[in-house]
Amino acid sequence: MLALTRDDVRLKCKADDWQQALALAGAALVEAGFARPGYAGGLLERERQGSTWLGSGIAIPHGTPASRGEVVATGVRVLQFPDGVAWHDGHVVHLLVAIAAQSDEHLDILRQLTHALGRDGAEAMLARAEDADAIVAVLGHVETPPKLDADTLCLNLPVRSAAELALAAAARLQGLGCVQPAFVAAVASQPLIPLGPGLALVRSAQAVDVPALALATSQAPVEGGLFGVFCLAARGEAHRPLLERLEQLLARGAVAGLKGLSADTTLAVLAGEDGETHTGRVRLLNAHGLHARPAKLLVQTARAQSVPVRVRVLEGSPEAISAASLTKVLGLGARRGQTLVFSAHGETAEAAVAAMLAAVQDGLGESVQPLNEVVQPREVPAAQTEALPAAPEPGVAMAAIPASPGLAVAPIYVLRHPRFDYPEKAASPDHEIGRLDQSLAQAAQQLDVLIQGTQGAKVANILSVHIEMLADPGLRDAALESIHEGASAEAGWWHAIDTAASAQEALADRLLAERATDLRDVGRRVLCLLCDTPLPEPPDTPYVLVAEDVGPSDVARLDTSRVRALVTAKGGATAHSAILARALGIPAVVGAGEAVLQLTAGIELAVDGDAGRLIPAPDPETVRRFERRIEEQARIEQEAYQNRHEPACTRDGHRVEVAANLGNTAHAVDAVERGAEGVGLLRTEFIFMAHPDFPDLKTQIAEYGEAFDALAGRPLVARTLDVGGDKPLPYWPVAAEDNPFLGMRGIRLALSRPEVLETQLRALLMAAGSRPLRIMFPMIKDVEEFRAGKRVFDRLQAEIRAPDVQLGVMVEIPSSALLAASLAAEVDFFSIGTNDLTQYTLAIDRGHASLSAQSDAIHPAVLQLIRLTVEAAHAHGRWVGVCGELGSDPLAVPVLVGLGVDELSVTARRIPQVKAMIRRLGMPQARELASLALAQPTAAAVRQTLETAVAAALEPGQD
Ligand code: PEP
Ligand code: MG
């Protein structure tokens, strides 16, 4: 949003006609350095296509799309014509807001100006103003409302003065990063403004980074019976509506009851929920939060009620939104474990709220698990490239993110989103609204037809969410708002879509943020109809689909029997394209970067969905190798599954244990069914994350007991709480750090609160009874840290005496691999966390958007550290497991076995294949493969070398 200042305003301009006024506007933009002289022609041309008259004596001239090349920087100049200019459409203009914009920023400015249009006397004031500030004040600008939530409340403090309350509130805002120290100092010198009985306000606009409102209350009244101080960090006027709401609440006497209340009840009071409001709360249990599908059902339920229903997230802002608007509901960003608060007024309010609660409890169309279950897929962000890159070289392998397993070789079909060319403005809003409504209806019909013809419930479900998005009154209203402001149906609709999608993208939860793709997907469908542009048609022979990102309706429209693989330039492993590919069993590689879009249509592409690799125009030998592997894989997978319960012994009888990685104890049954010989890594922090507060001893015993029961005597390797870095625990906040991966995480954090570690260790030991329990500490850097953890363990074990327990460490920091000999003398076992070991060895953040493809755990430096660890462990008679993702990598398995790793712990789905692979190996060949890999200089060289060498080692008759 552009904010106007007095320097942007030119007072007392004069022009004989509208063309001259436009020429002055163009010159002002050029003088300000926003545009080149050629832009003036664009302003004129745009005006000829349709008037930019807005109302209240304002016009907003801006260039045509063709003239955007003349824009140097986005900017605005306001020209005042006190005598008025006769505009070509019959109006008189007193103010020109001339815009130089490279995209559609003018629509934002337009929205901003509508605030001015509604005000009484605005036109006369703008025409006559003698001072630039007066014009700026009338035009105003829209800003984000202040942050107000449970975080900004500090309640029931043991303070003795109002000043302490004000400072406590200001300090809280500083702690949250909303303000800088100068704000706190400013608040200290501000007088308190009485608000009403017992309450006061203190405010400052100094050193405010994020506008926010904090509230501090005291345990006992302080001077003058005061018990609460609101502290406002103001920026602009965005806090006005909030303060007005507060004033209304004060007038109703509602806020006087804030004394001694909890955060929840305080937020309810601030939300205006009173005796007249019927409210109900319900915990959201859906694994991925309130994403599109459940949100759709929630919205449908709200729309079916006879009274309007509002909803807010208990842990969020006390501003409730309409539960009948899909975009608003999605914008809540509600996650699993958060509480939704529904409210309604009127006779049938109680029934309406009850219906909402029941719908959420039923899972909103999804099967939901109680909070002691959690599914936390690791999300890999998309690779990003900045400039338009060159096409990939033929025959040269490219690395990207594996999203769905399997191999394919086929000619590519590059799906490009159609280009739309439409006028930005239109003369008749009614006509435009008619066109938009017709296209919305046609798009819904198209989607209905697609749903009938689609394979698989998942695709159909996603498409039905699209239908729901089309029916969202929030989207249509936003489009209509722009249309009434003079936008064409196309521009209004796309602005509404883009705004909603951008809001979705800004959400912290990546899974919810990725639903923005759905919005744009459905938005393009409607644009195609409005612009009469055909949707792209794929070939009717088998192909690899290459696209920037693949929306669900793209997939549904394609004949999936012909799509051999999906490749996307953008998107992470949890993008819909990836989810759909997995659901449809299509190999997929995502986040391959913009370069893939430069590939020439029709050339062959070899896709390896297991390793996340692409080879454009592969040579005949590579093609033959891929084809052999495709056939082979189908056969092996079937055989592997049949033999999943057999042990994994190499051809020469060397046994390697294959266990499962779990983040959820309820999945232990499934892991055993897939052939797991134990749990090799229980990520206990995911169990903690599924609780709103630290689970108590009893709860933890029950959780761990569930895994032990399912394992029926097989060992459980539990990692103690590994919080911090990329895994925050909401109720264990860690102070902001520049490098969280190098800060308070893992064992360092756990040792800072030994009582938490102690309860966890006690629960594990008690749950185990006589069953085999292996406990390991995460992120150990040397023996000293291990000893600190062991002291806690020893104290408990002396008391509980669980008979079959081992205590080990994770090797995921290079120092612990390098010092493995000193650790091996004291630990019972090692488990190598290759995910973190790789990030710390290669100095690449494991979630880095553009570098993650280079962060390959098969790197020879990582393999060297594994070798050191195994050698040190075996010299002391200790066993070594690998529990990072490398253990599932088909090329790495033989190397790890060859390095002497005793146990591989992998995602349950991969267990049959990993076991089968080990059975096809001989130890001498595995050792040779390990030496070969260790001798390579780079990860790419390791992969290249192993590709043929592993295939040869797995051939029968190698002994
Ligand atoms: C690892 O770092 O390899 C590991 C298994 O732990 P996590 O992925 O949970 O950090
Ligand atoms: Mg780790």
From TrEMBL:
InterPro entries on file: HPr-like, HPr-like_sf, PEP-util_enz_mobile_dom, PEP-utilizing_PTS_enzyme, PEP_util_AS, PEP_util_C, PEP_util_CS, Phosphohistidine_dom_sf
One Pfam family recorded for the sequence: PTS_EIIA_2
EC identifiers of the protein: 2.7.3.9
Cofactor(s) needed for function: Mg(2+)
Main location: cytoplasm
NCBIfam families: PTS_I_fam (TIGR01417)
Protein name: phosphoenolpyruvate--protein phosphotransferase
Species this chain originates from: Frateuria aurantia (strain ATCC 33424 / DSM 6220 / KCTC 2777 / LMG 1558 / NBRC 3245 / NCIMB 13370)
